[in-house]
Write a structure and sequence with these properties.
Layout: H1 8-23, E1 29-31, H2 33-43, H3 62-73, E2 74-77, E3 87-88, E4 91-92, E5 94-96, E6 100-104, H4 111-125, E7 132-137, H5 140-156, H6 158-163, E8 164-167, E9 170-173, E10 178-184, E11 197-201, H7 210-217, E12 226-231, H8 240-252, E13 261-265, H9 293-305, H10 307-317, H11 331-336, E14 349-355, E15 363-370, E16 376-385, H12 389-396, H13 400-405, E17 409-412, H14 419-433, E18 437-440, H15 442-456, E19 461-463, H16 468-484, E20 487-489, H17 493-501, E21 504-506, E22 512-514, H18 524-536, H19 546-550
Parallel strand pairs: 6-12, 6-13, 7-10, 7-11, 11-12, 14-18, 16-17, 16-20, 18-19
Antiparallel strand pairs: 1-2, 2-5, 3-4, 8-9, 9-10, 14-15, 15-16, 21-22
Helix pairs in contact: 2-3, 2-4, 4-5, 9-10, 14-15, 16-18
């Protein structure tokens, strides 16, 4: 039985949200189907402008209709400066829910024509008079692809021709006074931008986020802004396209809660055979419609015969990033291990692992409870300097402020990590919870450990060197426990995020260790847990006096 395509998660999320609204679990969002369908209706009144279908009306496929209706049909209550819903005439003010949308599809699945149609529909349906829509890409010529689609669609439609004008690479829709124009990194000016809707074309080709940030920063005064990205996979893992793809996957997998992010991701599963025709549709929902099997078979045969064509086949036709890092731990398995209410009273050992940050970054503390029958339970907590939170949120694209408010992260005063907070918490753990050992990386934690040893004379501090030979076995054991379900955890969302970031390095002998080289893929919590696993291998419970276990006997 074939596994359903990843893009079905878009529809599954929609159904969950509908159920939450219907049950009263959520009253901050609502689905207005007619609003989403309005985009579908307008697009299907437009015409194809190239190829054998040129001049014919666009007929969207079922997946396109459903996804568009979801993308534009959801609304949320607009919040005021006090964080409460804004009211008008006694009723809440509703605005667009999704402010970012990623459409991630292989080539020839109708991305550009869809983007052109959406831009025109937005220009007609916009509630903001004088809206600005831009199609943007690294080169203005690339940005003009979607813009030219808009221009040609207008040419085929009398109503639009009569109510729109085109001059100097600017389309003006008269009824709403909305403009549509292309924008590239090589455009002469970016002044005067007040963009409500940005269409980012093939963002896998952007060298950095500078142009994206120009568009985003211009949306500050708009009530219902949206960034609408369309892209295939690419070859550059440092591109904003890959960053956006990774972030979207975290949202769809439930790693990060971003209620304003829409994603439609069409891709092969990791273990799919790229030459198996039965899986091609996962990356190509329009296979057999706008993209032919003949084309796919020709490209597949070329990839088999010429190794130089293989990467292009994987990237462009099957939407797979070449050389993409693979997560070490299957996140679905990690989620299954969540058990916040686990009883740890029977633990025969408590190992506390710490992974100290650089002065302005994360620090992680993990407690691993060793339970009977070879089971373990993990609790984690994190620390970050308060003054660096906003900067880190932007860099890492993680909701740090929310996690701080929820108590999963302690924000220590200042712009460097305050060791006194961590020391105080660890001393409390030792005195109240009966920690047996502190497992630490001597590279950064020497001062902290020295203070703990001096303050209470604790003798259970154990150095865990971070080389391959020391860390390989505990890293493997951590993964094995998750796959077997012999470890549970407290469901800390920060740790969930870090587990989703975990990748490993491998040496010539096949030993592994966590890869800490990616500055935006934080894994501090994983490192702290693995430090405890290094000691769990050899840990023996302290001997209990026979008199404590059975009491005195009389003769």
């Amino acid at each position: 039985m074939l596994k359903k395509p990843y893009y079905e998660k878009t529809f599954d999320r929609h159904e969950r949200d509908l159920a939450d609204v219907a049950s009263g679990k959520r009253d901050d969002i609502r689905f207005v189907k007619e609003l989403g369908l309005a985009y579908v209706v307008i697009i299907e009144r437009l015409h194809h402008f190239e190829g054998e279908l040129a001049g014919q009306k666009i007929v969207l496929e079922d997946w396109q209709r459903r996804a568009l209706t979801i993308c534009f049909g959801w609304q949320r209550k607009r919040l005021g400066a006090d964080g409460k819903p804004m009211m008008r005439d006694g009723n809440p003010v509703w605005v667009r829910r999704f402010n970012t949308a990623l459409w991630y599809l292989a080539r020839k699945n109708g991305k550009s024509i869809l983007a052109s149609g959406v831009a025109l529909a937005e220009s007609i349906l916009t509630v903001e008079k004088g809206n600005q829509i831009v199609t943007f890409a690294t080169k203005r010529d690339q940005a003009k692809i979607v813009w030219s689609g808009c221009e040609k669609m207008i040419g085929y439609n009398k109503d639009l021709r009569d109510n729109a004008s085109v001059a100097y690479s600017t389309i003006t829709v008269n009824k709403t006074d909305t403009t549509i124009r292309p924008l590239g990194r090589d455009s002469k000016t970016e002044d005067g931008l007040n963009i409500g809707f940005g269409v980012g074309d093939e963002i896998h080709a952007h060298p950095d986020r500078s142009l994206i940030e120009v568009v985003q920063s211009s949306q500050g005064s708009r009530v219902q802004p949206m960034m609408f990205y369309i892209t295939t996979a690419g070859f550059n893992l440092a591109s904003p396209g890959y960053d956006e793809y990774e972030y979207a996957k975290k949202v769809m997998d439930g790693v990060i809660d971003d209620d304003g992010y829409f994603a439609f991701i069409a891709e092969l599963d990791k273990d799919d055979d790229p030459f198996d025709e039965s899986v091609w549709y996962k990356a190509n929902p329009n296979l057999g419609i706008s993209k032919t099997y003949d084309h796919m078979r020709n490209m597949a045969n070329s990839a088999k015969e010429r190794p130089s064509a293989l990467n292009n086949f994987l990237v462009k036709e099957l939407n797979r990033w070449v050389n993409a890092v693979e997560n070490f731990i299957p996140f679905a398995k990690w989620k299954e291990c969540a058990a916040p209410e686990t009883d740890v009273s029977e633990a025969y050992g408590i190992l506390l692992g710490v992974d100290l940050s650089r002065t302005d970054d994360f620090t992680a503390k993990a407690k691993t409870y060793l339970l009977p029958n070879g089971k373990k339970h993990i609790k984690t907590h994190f620390y970050i300097p308060a003054d660096t939170v906003k900067e880190r949120e932007r860099e890492l694209r993680a909701p740090l402020t929310t996690w701080i408010l929820q108590g999963f992260i302690t924000a220590t005063p200042g712009n460097t990590i305050d060791l006194e907070y961590i020391e105080r918490d660890i001393l409390n753990d030792i005195e109240q919870n009966g920690v047996n050992e502190i497992c630490y990386d001597p590279y950064r934690a020497a001062t902290l450990v020295s203070n703990i040893e001096k303050n209470i004379g604790f003798e259970g501090c154990v150095q865990i060197r971070q080389g391959f030979l020391t860390i390989s076995e505990p890293t493997s054991n951590f993964k094995d426990d998750i796959k077997k379900g012999t470890v549970t955890h407290d469901g800390n969302p920060v740790m969930n995020w870090m587990v989703s970031n975990l990748t490993v390095l491998t040496d010539a002998s096949g030993n592994i260790k966590p890869d800490k080289s990616h500055q935006t893929r934080k894994i501090d919590g994983c490192a702290a847990v693995i430090n405890t696993y290094a000691r769990a291998i050899v840990f023996e419970p302290p001997e209990i006096s026979v008199y404590e276990s059975r009491g005195l006997r009389s003769l």
